[in-house]
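From the shared-data thread, chain only:
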Amino acid sequence: MKDNRRNFIKKGTSLAALSVIGLGSGISVPIDYNDSKSAHGSESSARKESKKNVQWPVTEGPETPKICMNCGYNADEKGMRRVKQLGVNYVIMSGPRIPWTEADLRSTMERFKAGGLTVINMMISGFNNTILGREGRYAEIENIKKSVVAAGAAGLPVIEYNFYVNRLTAGYYPVEGRGGSGYLGFNYDPVRNLPHEPNTGAHSAEELWSNLTYFLKAVIPVAEKACVRLALHPNDPPATVSHGSDQIMGSVKERPELLTRIFKTY
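Structure, as tokens:
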């Protein structure tokens, strides 16, 4: 399976990394400041140089990451205004049912544009047979291809997707934060051995790498031609196993070669 992983890293995650880092044509690798002070407690020369090069206040531009908020695909004027009032100009959202059409995407993007917001990323779904390697994945992938072409024609720059058998949401629990705000905590211990779900079964990492490689080989060329970047969302929560199935996108730490190959490619 090493070849499958190599293909995935080279063509899949490099695109995902680009969409996370920013939509500009170049990537700037941040300097490691873990040892930003010398033995005498003074700042390192790299740190000082970085401070001189930074222009404050930092503003968004073609080469900078975008601050985004999630917003509903069918958000009304009130919902869009709430995001705009927070000072956010870019939104991400779940897309419609596949296959997407240019007219539908363009209509939605123009509606948000009228509210002062740019739709920069949509989540695509509806290809479980592809994830599980089952009959019917050919038709699903064809719908994904059509959706990617539609996104490119409408001017949507990023399509996000998941590739896990199921989410281990049973381990989440509410946590109260400052001022009564709500957070989510996660406890893996009571849910690490949950049985697989009847409709999905249990799937190994080798199976999932193979299925993901099959998917990327079919879709990446279409995305490149359409000038659309694919962003693979990591397994959330990042548990090693979920309902008996391995999760292959649970940790970058487990695959240090991942980031190395991304930056070597670009």
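Residues 1-40, 258-266 have pLDDT under 50 and may be disordered.
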